[in-house]
Write a structure and sequence with these properties.
The chain is mainly alpha-helical. It contains one helix and no strands.
């Protein structure tokens, strides 16, 4: 084998080694990236579950708050109705007293 041919054979052999190393590194990097992808997906799944849990809690709290507000509104309406009735009664009493003052009964 001529020295030139031998040099080219060495270059090709070295090239094959480099290509093999690059292919191995590429395969290794792909595996690392796949592992990271799986880990990230697992973490996002956990976060999604937490958000779903929080949404359910907020929905429950929202329902409780709506029920409480409805109860408070009913109590407030009842209280206002009671105050109105009491005010009407007091105004009626005041009208009666004013009528007595304006038109006294004369006893004789």
């Amino acid at each position: 084998m001529s020295p030139t041919l031998q040099s080219w054979a060495q270059v090709l052999s070295l090239g094959a080694i480099i290509v093999g190393a690059l292919l191995y590194q590429t395969h290794y990097i792909d595996k690392v990236i796949e592992g990271l992808r799986n880990e990230i997906n697992a973490r996002f799944s956990t976060v999604d579950e937490r958000f779903k849990s929080m949404e359910e809690r907020f929905a429950g709290l929202r329902a409780e708050l709506k029920a409480e507000i409805a109860g408070l509104r009913a109590e407030l309406k009842a209280e206002i109705a009671g105050l109105r009735a009491e005010m009407e009664q007091r105004f009626d009493n005041l009208d009666t007293r004013l009528d007595r003052i304006e038109h006294p009964v004369v006893r004789g």
